[in-house]
Design goal:
Length: 495
């Protein structure tokens, strides 16, 4: 079909058309990874499935879908499609499969490891239009959502039900993006990560077939039926299939919540308190650590006046009676470790103000050096080893003249250095890169992981090999080859 006929038949919009008309020429300049003639063939098919407004070749659109919030450079896909249903995802995947085109799923683009970059070109499947909450079972504490529903949208939907979904990465990410990266956040110490909270997934595989990882429609709270396919796809970062539905656990909104902030004379004292609180069996809902540099940045950014020292932000959920007990024991433990300057908050507004410093940490770090970019490292170690690794890491930062305030989900042994760097300074970029590799290897030497929650993406593939060893990598490769023999699903990531 000629491009002229193609345009007439498919009523391409002027923008889409003008881009399509340029394809062969642009392809020669290696702007498009897909050859112009292939694109010419697949575009009508994409439009027939997703509608004309469900397909875009626009440069700005492709660039917007070729980057996340990381410092990895933008790798735009050749085309962006917006399917509206699992049937459309499947039909589009079949077209890609027939033409051997890479598929890169896109949630909200808040990832921190370059996961949405189309390193081999291909087709970005943006799941934004699939944003319905499908099945809520209040009495069973579960819900099924389409991939574009974000965590905040789900919690707004649940507002009047007395239920909530607690996994809370700092950004308002899509729930299937969160499943794809095995995300967690401040509530993980009590409610778990995405791994513990996904009951079933609907997945479109590379050849367009539709899989239900726990069986269609099933939503038991527990199962010992066969291999855990659900958890194979949690954390698969779009490399095994497109997640088109997730069935998630829900929790009752606690009767009461109380938060406090408390400062410590040393990192060791803050972490000792954390370990002792957990050992005492306190069902702490959140226990977050900020180092002195981070506290200083937060004070400046949010106009606060917290002590500039290692600090814990804590939150307790429960009934009045249980809170009384939790708070008394925790206060005893923290005072015993030199904790002071307690600020307490119970009503929602004051708690919101108190947590503001923690929630704004990313932006507070960025504000330390206006015009710079931030990169969040993400390691996780057995909790007792946290003081050791944090002290070593702070020394490393100082010796290498780097800005990297520390914030951590300390109850899980997980922490981030929010590296603030000038991306146009090659020397600094190199020093940050070397620092992050050293930090990850330090975590590995302490039997930890190179990523607690952000995923492997582009940047941590070599570290993953060091972490799990050649045999585990080989098993992963074979699993990938079984599910995606043509290596079409988000190629170049994880492995
Ligand atoms: C300020 C800030 C704070 C953050 N704090 C945290 C935190 O505390 N904890 C944490 O875990 N993360 C955190 N993140 C990182 C980010 O929010 C998470 O990684 C999130 O899970 C990404 O979801 P997304 O929808 O934006 O996915 P995207 O960025 O769109 O994609 C991420 C990866 O998942 C794949 N993917 C997306 N959707 C699908 C799908 N439907 N099917 C298959 N694969 C898919 C993509 O291909 C890509 O590989 C933070 C990010 C920012 C910017």
């Amino acid at each position: 079909m000629s491009l002229a006929l193609f345009r007439r038949v498919h009523h391409l919009s002027t923008t889409a058309w003008s881009r399509a008309a340029q394809l062969p020429r642009v392809a020669e300049k290696k702007f498009y990874a897909i050859k112009g003639d292939v694109l010419e063939q697949v575009l009508p098919a994409f439009c027939a499935v997703a509608g004309e407004d469900g397909v875009s070749l626009g440069t700005a659109v492709r660039e917007q879908h070729g980057r996340d919030e990381s410092v990895h450079s933008c790798r735009p896909p050749d085309v962006v499609v917006w399917p509206r249903s699992v049937e459309e995802v499947s039909a589009l995947a079949k077209i890609c499969h027939r033409h051997r085109l890479p598929i890169v799923p896109f949630g909200t683009g808040t990832g921190l490891e370059g996961g949405v970059g189309a390193v081999k070109g291909g087709v970005c499947f943006s799941l934004r239009k699939m944003d319905r909450v499908l099945d809520l079972h209040q009495e069973d504490f579960d819900v099924t959502v389409e991939p574009g529903v974000t965590r905040k949208a789900l919690n707004s939907y649940l507002r009047d039900t007395g239920l909530w979904f607690p996994v809370d990465p700092g950004a308002d990410a899509s729930l299937c993006g969160m499943a794809a990266t095995s995300a967690s956040g401040t509530n993980a110490v009590r409610y778990g990560t995405m791994r513990e909270n996904v009951l079933n997934l609907e997945v479109v595989l590379a050849d367009g077939t539709v899989l239900h990882t726990a069986g269609e429609g099933r939503r038991p709270r527990k199962t010992s039926a066969g291999y855990n396919l659900t958890n194979l796809f949690v954390g698969s970062e779009g490399t095994l299939g497109v997640l088109t539905k997730a069935t998630l656990r829900l929790y009752g909104i606690p009767e009461l919540m109380v938060s406090t902030v408390c400062s410590f004379p040393s990192v060791q004292a803050a972490v000792d308190s954390t370990v002792q609180v957990l050992q005492a069996g306190i069902p702490i809902a959140r226990i977050e650590f900020l180092d002195d540099v981070m506290m200083d940045a937060c004070n400046r950014f949010s106009g606060l006046s917290y002590a500039v020292s290692p600090t814990l932000f804590l939150e307790f959920h429960g009934s009045e009676k249980s809170l009384e007990e939790q708070v008394t024991i925790t206060e005893d433990i923290t005072r015993g470790n030199g904790g002071s300057d307690f600020s307490w908050a119970q009503d929602a507004e004051t708690r919101g103000q108190l947590w503001k410093a923690r929630h704004d940490a990313w932006y507070a770090a960025l504000a330390l050096r206006p015009g710079c970019k931030a990169y969040a490292t993400d390691v996780c170690v057995p909790i007792s080893l946290l003081p050791h690794i944090i002290v070593e890491t702070k020394k490393d930062l100082t010796e290498n003249r780097l800005t990297g305030p520390i914030a951590g989900h300390v109850g899980d042994g997980n922490f981030h250095c929010l590296m603030v760097l000038d991306p146009d300074d090659p020397d600094e970029v190199q020093r940050v890169h070397q620092f992050t590799e050293r930090l990850a290897r330090r975590a590995l030497s302490l039997n930890g992981t190179c990523t607690g929650e952000h995923g492997v993406g582009l940047g941590k593939r070599a570290l993953l090999q060091e972490e799990v060893g050649p045999l585990a990598i080989d098993v992963m490769r074979r699993l990938k080859a079984t599910l995606d023999p043509e290596n079409l699903m988000n190629p170049g990531k994880i492995l």
